[in-house]
Amino acid sequence: MNDMTYILAIESSCDDTSAAVLRDGVLLSNVTASQAVHEMYGGVVPELASRAHQQNIVPVVNAALKKANITKERLSAIAVTLGPGLMGSLLVGVSFAKGLATSLGIPLIEANHLQGHILAHFIHAEDEEHADPPYPFLCLLVSGGNSQIVKVNAYNSFEILGQTIDDAAGEAIDKCSKVMGLGYPGGPIIDRLARQGNPKAFSFSKPNISGLDYSFSGLKTSFLYFLRDHVAENANFIEENKNDLAASLEATIVDILMKKLKMAVKETGIKHVALSGGVSANTALRQAFMNMEKAGQWKIYIPKFSYTTDNAAMIGITGYYKFLDKEFCPMDKPAYSRTII
Ligand code: KG4
Fold it and tell me: 144 CB under 6 A from ligand 1?
């Protein structure tokens, strides 16, 4: 008899095919295949992403089961990202999860990708010791598709206090990196260059919108015009200044993110503050969080790098909590491309 809970989690919402296995909520494996095919296009090409997921899904799931040292017959349930994301990408993971759950006669659990990013703070592998944020806490969720300040009341109760009204922070970084002629995704490249640059070398426009919402499209346009004007005078401007450009862009984005987050802390009085999503890998943003903790202002929660970008471990921990609450997903529930948590 299988008295332990084994959950297989699958994430395929964008361009990473990922599978994880958890035993009683403890992470045993987390295997991700990234898709290099998009680099030459400067962004994710949805059709190519779906095809790559098709190729990757079986080997990635097999590798996750093997690393966890279990066979699929021992699984108690399968958790899968139902949305939001690219529909063609989601369909690969969702169809696979439904097929496998049906054939094994075990429940399917739906996970929301954004909920997963937030619950990444609760992932524990066997040898990982860290404090979980206590409820309620604030979470700055910053990725390629989202920039939100979320009040997290419980694993399944969220209030969006503020969010971007146009581009996401990661999207802005990626687009600015593209106009500089750097590779894709731009975030890690800008981060690397910024470490050698002066964050005060250049200044770019910051949004002036009320409340806790964000806006990044003005910054993107100001960056574009700034480069266009300087390149007209000096064709080598970008190459000669790329470190300072990256550092100044990064500093502007971090300032914008932190300003509203500080306002949210002030308004709610909640001082436990977490950082989630792909952009949370950013060195300057992590440093800004650490500075707030050092100054005695906040207690901060920053996930391991491997749990910041898209991964199935975060879907697994979401699935585990839902499993405990017996919150299962009907097999005819479709994937969805857009939603908020
Ligand atoms: O969460 P994620 O992997 O995918 C989405 O769900 O969007 O986030 C990807 C985003 C991309 O925009 C990428 O450029 C950005 O996260 N990113 C970074 C860094 N690493 C990834 N941005 C800034 N600094 C980084 N080190």
Answer: yes
